[in-house]
Amino acid sequence: MTIETIIKQHLPAYKDLDFSLPFEVSHRSVTANTALTKYGAIENKIFLLTEGIVQISIVKGEEERILEFVFPGAFFCAYTSFLLQQPSDVQVTTLTTCSVSIIQKESLLQANQASLLSSHLSLHIAQQLFLSRAKREKDFLILSAEERYKALLEKDANIVKHIPGNKIASYLGIRAESLSRIRKAIIP
Q1: CATH no. for residue 138?
Q2: What is the DSSP letter of 23?
């Protein structure tokens, strides 16, 4: 999955066009358990996950809570920090070995001034990040923990091989013991 592929798939006006990206993109392979954005850092880049799984977490008291898991094909970053240029209250960490494409904020902002393609992509990224967060909030309000777990498995059936149960439980907003009961109820 590349940024060009995302553009062709999600921005219909560019589906059949040849284009070059109006901003710089770097690519990086990252080992598991690497903090891409640490608590307190100011986010200055947006990532596209091309391979692996990433978590976005926050600390409440002494407990880390998982806000989101990111799967291939999705853009991610410490978005509030990226927008406001304030220290991040979240940490972005690779859970598995990952491949990412990276767009620097300054390069993107400069491209947005001169390129409709860049502006359209920026809007798509903002919409994707908003819709992902809105869906998560709605799911917490209307779905049971078991339904949220099933939905997570639908995103990536192999997730249980890559993410420890305590992290999945944190993401679901339940204790590890409750996740164990859910798993037993689902798996005959």
Answers
A1: 2.60.120.10
A2: S
